[in-house]
Each structure stands twice: as C-alpha cells, then as structure tokens.
Amino acid sequence: MGLLLILLVGDLTAPLKPHLEAAVPAAFAAPRPEVAVGSEAPAGRTVAWVTATGPDDVVLTLHTARIPGDLRRELHFSASDKPATRAKSIAFALAVLAKEREDALAPLPPEQPPPPGVVERVWEIEARGVGSLSIGEGALGGGGQILAHRLFPFGLSAGVGFELNGSGAKNTSLTQGSGWVEVNLRFGGPLIVPRLTLGAGAMINVLSREKETTTVWLPLFRIAVDATWRFFEGHGLTLGLSSHLTTATLPIGTTNMGMGMGMGGGNTGALGPLWVRAELGYSLAL
C-alpha cells in the first residue's frame, strides 16, 4: 500500500497530534506512517483523514490509490477518555482499515512507476567542419562553423551562425569571415531531424596576393539543407549541404602589368559570387 499519511483536520484534533505520534508505532507494522496536520495530500498517496466532528466524536476516512471509494469509520468517546487513550483507539482503528485495504490491493498487479518525463530541449549548439567550392575558378577551401539555435514549437527555430573559411587560386589566398542570422524549419524526429535553413548576413573577404592585401565586405545570403542524427539524448551528428551567395565576384590573380586587380591580360580570374559547401559536425540540444 505504500506509506500512509495521517492528516489531522481541524482545531479539535490538534491536541491529539503528540499522542497519535506516540501511539502509531505500536499500532502499525513498519514502515511507520507519517502524522501531519492539514487537510490535503499529494495525489497518488494513501491518506487517512482524522476529523473531529464534536468534542467526543471522531470520523476516520482512509483513501487508497488504485481502489475506488474510501473506507470510513466513526469513533465515539466518553468525556472522561484521555487524549492518549483516544489516540491509541484512533491508531488501531486506522491500522485495521489499512489492513483491509492491503488485502484488497494484494490481487492487483504491481503498480507501474510513471514514465520518465520528456526533456524539453530549447537550445541547439553546433560545431561543424566545412568543405567549400567556389563557383568561378572552382577553388577548393575549408574551414569551420559555430551555430546556435533557439528551438520553437511547430518545427521552427531561429539562430545565428559564424564561419571562418579559407581558399585560394591563381597565386591569391582568400580568407572569409562570415556572420548571419537564420530561420529553420525542422521535419520529422526525434531520431533523424531534417532541416531547411534560410539566412542573411555579411561576409568579410581578405584577398592576399604577393605583397598586396585587399579587404572586401559583401552581403551574404545562405540556404542550407541538413539532417541531424540524435544518437544519445541531446547529442547528435549533422550532415548538410549549403550555398553562400553574395552580390559580386572577387577578382584574383595578377596581370602582366602587376596591377593585381584583373586589368589587362594576365593570370587573372574571379571567385564567387556563389560558394557551395559540404558541412559535417557535432550537435548538442539543451
């Protein structure tokens, strides 16, 4: 039946509390019930209410989880009965009621513990490695990303992303730093979670050729599709494809005149305005 909680209801029962606490060990087998003053108890507990309906009248009510209906017994005392005597009678009467309920519970299957609650995860942090390819000269590059998302209902999320990427072609090295905000739409789950992403931000491009360095700021537009495999609680692996699109190409290479910006007929070319990339990394949902 589990642990019994005895509640003393009303001012008339208050003087019985110390005497009832002393009488309970002799009336009940271990484990001993709790004795408390009040009128309510947590749901699912086996509870006995001791209510004084008059100076010498007490009503006992026993509620047991999993069995409909309550057991009820009325006790009548004479005015000369002392509080200790009354407490012993109440304790033994409650023990008889509890024994009756234990007999009724015996043929029932064991009570199953409640299922563990679903952990609501509201943040997602990701670290990804990136392999990139410039549409233009076809320059290969690579780098890393950090992303953070706030998860919302209905498969929606929003977040920020930062990337550092490097590539090069025609004696020109390109270092790109990017930052953006994005919105996401998630599908399926919870084991495999595909996602569609749209984002916008800015990209800083540092072009280095021979002794010349040029910095170019460009707007950035990002579209991505990926899927995360949750293999243990909030841990996961993410594989995705994305594209970073901007509004201009980046000139690379040097001319015969050494001007370095693609003027004339030298070893020149352009990177962008589209970069495609493969992304693979670790995801943690919190």
Compact summary:
By secondary structure, the protein is mainly beta. The chain has two helices and 15 strands.
Structural commentary:
By secondary structure, the chain is mainly beta. It is 12% helix and 55% strand. The chain contains two helices and 15 strands. It has helices spanning 17-27, 83-105; strands at 4-9, 34-37, 46-54, 57-63, 71-76, 123-135, 140-151, 156-169, 172-186, 192-209, 212-232, 235-245, 250-254, 267-271, 274-285. The strands form three sheets. The protein has an eight-stranded antiparallel beta barrel with strand order 6-7-8-9-10-11-12-15. A hairpin with a 2-residue loop joins strand 8 (156-169) and strand 9. Residues 257-265 have low confidence and may be disordered.
Structural class based on helices, strands and sheet pairing: mainly beta
Mean pLDDT: 87
Radius of gyration: 37 Å
Strand order of the largest sheet: 6-7-8-9-10-11-12-15
Distance between the termini: 38 Å
Shape: rod-shaped
Describe the sheet with the most strands. 8 strands, antiparallel, barrel
Please trace the helix and strand order, writing H or E for each element.
EHEEEEHEEEEEEEEEE
The low-confidence parts are 257-265
**Count of β-strands:** 15
Attribute tags:
mainly beta, eight-stranded antiparallel beta barrel, five-stranded mixed sheet, 2 helices
Question: Any chance you could write out the topology, listing elements then pairs?
Answer:
Blueprint: E1 4-9, H1 17-27, E2 34-37, E3 46-54, E4 57-63, E5 71-76, H2 83-105, E6 123-135, E7 140-151, E8 156-169, E9 172-186, E10 192-209, E11 212-232, E12 235-245, E13 250-254, E14 267-271, E15 274-285
Parallel strand pairs: 1-2, 1-3
Antiparallel strand pairs: 3-4, 4-5, 6-7, 6-15, 7-8, 8-9, 9-10, 10-11, 11-12, 12-15, 13-14
